[in-house]
Design a protein that fits this description.
This protein is of the alpha/beta class. It is built from 17 helices and 27 strands. The protein folds into three domains: 146 residues, Vaccinia Virus protein VP39 (Rossmann fold); 111 residues, 3-Layer(aba) Sandwich (Rossmann fold); 232 residues, Vaccinia Virus protein VP39 (Rossmann fold, 3-Layer(aba) Sandwich). Belongs to the methyltransferase superfamily.
C-alpha cells in the first residue's frame, strides 16, 4: 500500500500504476479542484487507485497503515524558509508520515535538496532511529530537464531504541551503485552540495567559455580521497574547427608541480600550444593506483564529456594527450609524519628522457616541492662487460638510488649560490668562508656549498629533527668537520649568537654568508617563505650583527601578497642599505641579496669578474659537473633595486 502526499496533478501515480509497479495507491491533496480533476482523469481506467481530499498534517488513516509514503516535491514546497511556524508545520508533516507508516516501511521524498530542506529531514528522521539514504537520481546535461540534480531521500522506519543508537546516514551518487556511509548530517549535506555545485559548473561550461580557469577534484569511490585534479582551460585565441574543440591532457605522475602544469599561466600556454579551444588537464594523485593510459581514459571518458565546451559536434572523438604517451613513474620511497612539519613523503619521479628525481613533499601543501635532487643513472665501470641479453634486465620503472650531489634542481638554489659573487673584499672568495644556512630540507643547498667551496665551513640550523633524518637517509646528506647541523629554532639560534658576540662552541660569531631558506608552517599567511618573524626589523638587525661588513645575507622570499611583500622589502631596506633582487622566472620565489654596507656596490664589470673567479673556484679536479647555469645566473640575474 502506497500513500502519495500532496499529489497535485502529477502523472507519477498514473505511470506507476500503468507500469504495474503497484496498484494500491492512495493520493491525497488539500485542493478540492485538483482531486476532482485527477478523479476524472483516472476514472475507471485505474479502479484500485484513489484520490482523497485530505490534509497531510492531520490524516484520517489508522496507525501503521502504509508500507510506502511518497512525496514528490511537497516537502520542498512547504519548507521554503526556516521560520518557526514553517518548521512547526514540517514537524507535524513528519510526525503524521511516521504515524501512518509501518515499521520497515519507507518514506521516499523527491527533492532538489536545498541545504536547509535536506538538513531538516535528515536530522528529524535520524534522531527517530530511522536509516537515511540520499540517492542522486538525475544529473545535469542535455538529456536532463533541470540544471540542478534531483535527489530522493529514502528513510526506512525502525523502532526507536532507547538511549543513543548510532545514526546510519548514506549517500548513493548517480554514478555509483554502492552507497557511501557518512558520519553526520553536516557531511551528508556537504556531499550533496558538492554534486549540486558540480552540476551548476557543468551547465555553465556547456553554455559559455570560462574566462578564469576552473579546477575540481574527482574522488575515489571507496576512500573518498581525491583521485584526479582537473583544470579546465579555454583558449579564446584558438579558432574553432571540427577537430580542435576539446582535448584531455594527462599530466605524467610527479610532474604536476612543474611550471607548465602547476601554474595558471603555464596551463594557459600549454592549451594554446596544443591548439585546442578547451583543454582539460588531469593531475594524478600519489595515493592512488592507475592502470595505465588506457585505464585512465576508460575511467574518465564519461566524466570529462560533462565538461565539454559549447558547440562540440555530436559524436566528436575527444583525444587524450600526454607527454611521451605514458602516465609517468612515481615511486613513494618513504612516508612519515613529523610533529612540526606534518605528514610528508619522499618520492622518486621520472622527468624528461631518462632523468629521475627524488623529492620531499609536505602533504599539507602537496603541490609544492620542498626539496629535490637528481638521481644518478648507473654507468658501467671501465672494462665491465655488458649485460647478456638472456639475463633479466632491470625494470624501466625502477629509479636509480644514488644522489647526484653536483646538480642543483631548484632554480632558487642556483640563484642563492650565484649571490656569492656579491661578497666584498679584495678577493672573490675569502680563505675561510663561514656560511650559515637556516633551513635544511633535503640538504641540497648546504651540501652543494660544502662540496664545491673547499674553504667553506657550513653551519645549518633546522628546527625539525625529522628533516635531518630524511636528508641523511634519502638525499645523501652527511656531516663532517666543515658541516654541522644544529637542531634549533633559527630565531633562537641567531638571537643567541647576536647576544654572545663571541665564538660559541666552535661556531663563528660572524659569517661571510647567511642564507635563509626556511618555509612557514602557517598556510593562512600570504607568505610561505620565510615565516613572518624572520623578516621583522628587530630580528633582521640581529642577522646584521652576525654578518661580516663585507658579507652577504641571502633570503628566499615566497610571497603572494603584494602589500606584504612591499612591507618586507621596506623593512629590509631599513636594515640593509644595499639590496639586490633576483626574480625566479615562472615561480613566485624572489631571491634577495642584502649587504650590510652601502660601500659594497659593484658595477657590472666588477660583478662579471667576480662571477668568473667564482666559476673557477667551483671547478674541482675529479668532480665533473655542469656549472654553466650558475655562471649564467651570476652574470645576468642580479639587478639593482
Amino acid at each position: 500500500q502506497v500513500l502519495v502526499v500532496g499529489c497535485g496533478n502529477s502523472e507519477l501515480s498514473e505511470q506507476m500504476y500503468d507500469m504495474g509497479m503497484c496498484e494500491d495507491i492512495v493520493n491525497i491533496d488539500i485542493s478540492d479542484a485538483v482531486i476532482r480533476q485527477m478523479q476524472e482523469r483516472s476514472g475507471s481506467k485505474r479502479p484500485k487507485m484513489s484520490y482523497l481530499l485530505m490534509d497531510m498534517l492531520q490524516m484520517d488513516f489508522p496507525d501503521a497503515h502504509f508500507q510506502v509514503v511518497l512525496d514528490k516535491g511537497t516537502l520542498d514546497a512547504i519548507l521554503t524558509d526556516e521560520e518557526e511556524a514553517t518548521l512547526a508545520k514540517v514537524d507535524k508533516m513528519f510526525a503524521e508520515i511516521s504515524r501512518v507508516l509501518q515499521v520497515g516501511g519507507r518514506y521516499f521524498c523527491v527533492s532538489l535538496a536545498q541545504a536547509h530542506v535536506l538538513k531538516k529531514a535528515v536530522e528529524y528522521f535520524s534522531q527517530e532511529g530511522w536509516v537515511v539514504r540520499v540517492h542522486q537520481v538525475a544529473g545535469s546535461g542535455d538529456k536532463q530537464q533541470f540544471v540542478l540534480p534531483v535527489f530522493v531521500y529514502v528513510m526506512t522506519k525502525f523502532r526507536k531504541i532507547p538511549g543513543s543508537a548510532p545514526q546510519i546516514l548514506e549517500i548513493c551518487p548517480e554514478e555509483q551503485d554502492k552507497p557511501m556511509r557518512v558520519e553526520s548530517a553536516e557531511q551528508l549535506v556537504a556531499a550533496v552540495r558538492d554534486r549540486q555545485h558540480y552540476a551548476l559548473l557543468c551547465s555553465q561550461l556547456s553554455k559559455t567559455p570560462c574566462g578564469e580557469q576552473v579546477s575540481l577534484d574527482l574522488c575515489d569511490k571507496e576512500s573518498g580521497r581525491p583521485r584526479y585534479t582537473l583544470h579546465v582551460v579555454d583558449s579564446p585565441s584558438v579558432k574553432p574547427s571540427r577537430d580542435n574543440h576539446f582535448a584531455i591532457f594527462i599530466i605524467p605522475q610527479g610532474r604536476e608541480t612543474e611550471w607548465l602544469f602547476g601554474t595558471e599561466e603555464g596551463r594557459r600556454q600549454l592549451a594554446a600550444s596544443a591548439g585546442f579551444g578547451r583543454l582539460v588537464t588531469v593531475a594524478l594523485h600519489r595515493e592512488q593506483h592507475y592502470e595505465g593510459m588506457a585505464g585512465i581514459q576508460a575511467e574518465l571518458s564519461g566524466k570529462v564529456m560533462e565538461l565539454a565546451p559549447p558547440g562540440l559536434p555530436a559524436r566528436q572523438q575527444v583525444p587524450f594527450l600526454s607527454v611521451g604517451g605514458d602516465i609517468g613513474v612515481r615511486t613513494v620511497q618513504h612516508r612519515d609524519t613529523s610533529p612540526l612539519s606534518g605528514e610528508y613523503v619522499v618520492e622518486d619521479v621520472k622527468g624528461d628522457g631518462t632523468c629521475y628525481f627524488r623529492r620531499l613533499i609536505f602533504l599539507r601543501n602537496r603541490n609544492v616541492v620542498q626539496s629535490e635532487a637528481r638521481l644518478l643513472v648507473p654507468t658501467p665501470l671501465p672494462g665491465q662487460k655488458k649485460r647478456r641479453k638472456d639475463k633479466k634486465k632491470p625494470s624501466p620503472a625502477e629509479p636509480p638510488a644514488a644522489i647526484d650531489k653536483s646538480y642543483l634542481c631548484c632554480e632558487h638554489h642556483k640563484a642563492m649560490v650565484a649571490g656569492l659573487c656579491l661578497l666584498g673584499g679584495p678577493d672573490p672568495l675569502p680563505a675561510l668562508l663561514a656560511v650559515l644556512v637556516v633551513g635544511l630540507g633535503g640538504g641540497s643547498l648546504p651540501l652543494f656549498v660544502h662540496d664545491y667551496f673547499s674553504q667553506a665551513c657550513v653551519a645549518v640550523v633546522e628546527i625539525d629533527p625529522s628533516m635531518l633524518e630524511v636528508a641523511t637517509r634519502w638525499f645523501g646528506f652527511s656531516q663532517g668537520d666543515r658541516m654541522r647541523v644544529h637542531i634549533s629554532d633559527g630565531l633562537d639560534y641567531v638571537a643567541k649568537l647576536a647576544a654572545e658576540g663571541t665564538v660559541l662552541q666552535n661556531i663563528p660569531a660572524q659569517y661571510d654568508v647567511i642564507m635563509f631558506d626556511v618555509d612557514s608552517k602557517d598556510l593562512t599567511v600570504g607568505m610561505s617563505c620565510p615565516p613572518p618573524a624572520f623578516v621583522e626589523k628587530p630580528f633582521l638587525q640581529k642577522v646584521k650583527t652576525i654578518l661580516k661588513p663585507e658579507g652577504v645575507f641571502v633570503l628566499n622570499l615566497v610571497c603572494r601578497d603584494a602589500r606584504l611583500k612591499e612591507a618586507v622589502l621596506a623593512t629590509l631596506r631599513e636594515v640593509f642599505p644595499l639590496l639586490y633582487t633576483r626574480h625566479i622566472e615562472g615561480e613566485v620565489n624572489e631571491i634577495l641579496f642584502c649587504r650590510p654596507s652601502p660601500e659594497g656596490r659593484q658595477d657590472p664589470t666588477e660583478l662579471g669578474a667576480r662571477a668568473r673567479a667564482l666559476e673557477e673556484a667551483l671547478q674541482q679536479p675529479g668532480r665533473p659537473w655542469d656549472s654553466s647555469y650558475v655562471l649564467a645566473d651570476m652574470l645576468q640575474a642580479v639587478k639593482i633595486l
